[in-house]
Specification:
Elements lengths: L15 H26 L4 H11 L7 H8 L3 H13 L3 E5 L7 E5 L1 H10 L4 H7 L4 H20 L15 E2 L11 E3 L4 E3 L17 H12 L6
Antiparallel strand pairs: 1-2, 3-4, 4-5
Helix pairs in contact: 2-4, 2-5, 3-4
């Protein structure tokens, strides 16, 4: 049950989960407004800006269905955004020689220049987060990962390339080292909650439901979850 301080009326006060949701919605509003400013500065729509950001992190380019899924939009919307970026000379199409029906999209040199600027759009939020102590930042990151994973499983978000759903993730296998209790088997290095990735180009998703659930339990049941 939610506890309340003397003088605060729990009847008139919205529940805690509502107020946290309200806070996140306000942050989303601020991000949307900022991305409009950043996008229009570069002559892009926010969707085009997100395509540029996604392609920047995709070493081998992305196909249209993967782009649409990552953006959480229809294939037609993703196709419109990619078409506009191609006309601006920021994205180019690569046809698979083995199967000419398959094509992927990559940034051009001009697109990579814009991507550097696009990456700075959320800087105002980073500055605000930097005012928190590192322990609070780490807790916030873990809480965000829990929310993102829940939304992903509920079908409200496209698959996220997070450590917590990666076959290379070995959570809490090094309990003797609290700051680096996990291992990334791809990189062969120990790391901690403070290093957890939300969008890793090397992620290999766990596809089996039971394995995904076991991996999650191994993560949240570990000593860093307390
Ligand atoms: S490959 Fe990437 S997503 Fe997977 S555990 Fe390593 S850092 Fe995390």
């Amino acid at each position: 049950m939610e506890s309340h301080a003397p003088g605060i009326d729990p009847v008139t006060q919205p529940p805690l989960d509502d107020r946290v949701g309200d806070g996140l919605a306000r942050l989303a509003d601020a991000l949307r407004s900022q991305s409009w400013k950043g996008a229009s500065k570069n002559g892009l729509t926010p969707t085009q800006g997100r395509v540029v950001a996604l392609l920047q992190n995709a070493r081998e380019g992305l196909r249209l269905p993967a782009l649409a899924s990552a953006l959480g939009v229809t294939a037609a919307t993703a196709s419109d955004a990619v078409g506009a970026l191609r006309r601006k000379g920021l994205v180019e199409k690569h046809v698979d020689e083995a199967d000419r029906r398959v094509a992927s999209f990559e940034l051009t040199d001009a697109g990579r220049m814009i991507a550097l600027d696009v990456a700075l759009w959320p800087a105002f939020l980073t500055e605000a987060i930097d005012t928190l102590p590192s322990t609070e930042q780490e807790s916030l990151l873990v809480s965000l990962i829990k929310i993102l994973r829940h939304l992903q499983r509920a079908g409200e978000l496209p698959p996220q390339r997070m450590c917590v759903s990666c076959t290379y993730f070995q959570p809490n296998v090094r309990p003797e080292d609290r700051r680096n209790s996990h291992v990334c088997a791809f990189l062969g290095t120990p790391f901690g909650n403070q290093h957890l990735r939300l969008d890793c180009a090397d992620q290999n998703p766990v596809t089996d439901d039971r394995e995904a659930s076991e991996l999650w339990q191994q993560f949240i049941g570990g000593p860093l979850e307390k």
